[in-house]
Amino acid sequence: MPRSRLGPLAIESKLGDHPSQSCVWRAIHVQLKKAVAVKVFATPFGGTPEARASFASEWEQLKKLQHPAIAKCYGGGFEEKDAYLAHELIEGETLALQLERRGRLSWETVLDMAEPLVAAIEYLHQNDIVHGRLESDKILFAGLSPVLIDVRIDRINSSYRTNRPPTAKELAMRAPELLVDPAAASRATDLYGIGAIMYLSLTGLPPATGETIEEVSQSVANDLPPSPATLVLDCPVWMNKLVMQLLSKSPTDRPINAGAVTLALAEVRKRSMSRSGVAEHASAGFSALAVTSQHDRDVARELLGRDAIGMDEDVVEVPAWHDRPLVLITGLVAVVAMFAYLLWPLNEDQMRDRAEDLLVQQSRNAMNQAKSSYLEPMLQKFPDGEHVDWVKEQIDRVDMYQAEHALEVKLKRNLPLQNEAERLYAEASRYERFGDAATALDQYRSMQTLLGGDPQYRPFVNLARRQIARIEYEGVDADEASRMIAAKLAEADELMRDGKVVPARKIWYSIVELYGNNDNVAPLVEKAQALLAGNSNTTESD
């Protein structure tokens, strides 16, 4: 895009996994001083009045969408021959980059990702919107939470759309009916897209193969991909079944709607996290005992090629060693023993051991499972047990981790904070990130004083205590704020000399916003205000 301004937006740099092919830019809303992602559509002659009116109606509908797993749309506009949509800027990695870096994701991670994505698709469908282009580069991660981007009301018929033809990799992720008619996007094609995303994430491979457009199109139309469980041995059978149903060639064979997929994912989580689920998984494969009829025997002979070596129907067969009664009885006893081992109630020490195995993984999914499956049941079953203090400590630790993660997601996505604990901790953290440990320490201490007696704020009070201990260990200086602000002003001066106006202005804004009411550093704040005002005037005159 040749210009450096687009309406109220100052254009900075291209975004996307492949910027040279992208039409999405990072921009700053000049009046609001807010970073956004703006997608630009170039249209010959700027489009007809009818097309412009339709596009304006579209962005008004997009602005109304409010879902934690969907990037917010702030609106759009026209500038000469260009049209644009401004969206929430998600500072994170795409699923495509994650897979490029890691190869594939664990089934637990795929489950954690699929649940909010399906919820987002269900929300769109409830609002009569079809995404139509679910691909790995349209899923960004805000921390650990997936966010769906590039939502459109009428992707196919709008005059303002990307006209680049799809690549073979993109076609490999699309439903068969879209290859016949690109305008056939429907709720069923979105469900296929979810299945394709899950398949790609689980296996590292797309659900269709081929190097050229023609080869991929043939594969999408005719070839059923190998099931994930045959490529990834630890994939639960229930997830495997759901993914393959989502990838059904016929739309009518897929789940009835996104709500049904949500229920199926809940069942996957329930069964996969249970001990009985492991036993079901182990017994879900082929068993020689299942061959009972003469027809089955005939099929088995044909498959094994016994006729080719002169097998006579009248010959009395000697049972193989694994078909002998003693072996079968021994095997049955072993299965019963396995079930007894899996279902026998765990004692306190065993529950602690299993909780520790999960906690040491340091993943959100493992910590949540440790809390729900072992820590909380230990408190209920052994309220006076020898590990009760350890259990309470670990529950506090998990609650702290969950609270901190949830707050990080809200801050990255500019979601409203729900209570005073979140607000105070976010404010203290901001001082700490800015480099002012002394003020951050005061904020954390005030949290401890104000909220320490309220159980509902316990996770954030514990987080504050953790930060207090860390800052006190590292040491603070009463004059640190003055020195830190002076250093930040010097950093902004250096940025200005290099022509980097936007980063310098961010520093001045932060100083004014954080320390505007601090009389001890008033001269430094006034200097930041003056530089901000002077730079603003200079920019406007230029």
Notes on the structure:
- This is Serine/threonine-protein kinase PknL.
- GO terms for molecular function: ATP binding; protein serine/threonine kinase activity.
- Its EC number is 2.7.11.1.
- InterPro entries: Kinase-like_dom_sf, Prot_kinase_dom.
- It is built from 22 helices and eight strands.
- By secondary structure, the protein is α+β, with helices and mostly antiparallel strands.
- The chain folds into four domains: 84 residues, Phosphorylase Kinase, domain 1, CATH 3.30.200.20; 179 residues, Transferase(Phosphotransferase) domain 1 (Transferase(Phosphotransferase), domain 1); 127 residues, no CATH class; 62 residues, no CATH class.
- Strands 1-2-3-4-6-5 form a six-stranded antiparallel sheet, with helices on one face.
- β1 and β2 form a beta hairpin.
- The chain is flat.
- The two termini are 21 Å apart.
- The C terminus is likely disordered.
Short descriptors:
flat, disordered C terminus, Transferase(Phosphotransferase), domain 1, 4 domains, alpha+beta, Phosphorylase Kinase, domain 1, Prot_kinase_dom, six-stranded antiparallel sheet, two-stranded antiparallel sheet, Serine/threonine-protein kinase PknL, 542 residues, nucleotide-binding, EC 2.7.11.1, 22 helices
Please give the structural blueprint.
Layout: E1 5-6, E2 9-14, E3 24-29, E4 34-42, H1 49-63, E5 73-79, E6 82-88, H2 95-102, H3 107-126, E7 139-142, E8 145-148, H4 168-171, H5 176-180, H6 187-203, H7 213-222, H8 228-231, H9 237-246, H10 258-272, H11 275-282, H12 294-304, H13 325-343, H14 348-359, H15 364-381, H16 388-412, H17 420-434, H18 437-451, H19 458-474, H20 480-497, H21 501-515, H22 522-541
Antiparallel strand pairs: 1-2, 2-3, 3-4, 4-6, 5-6, 7-8
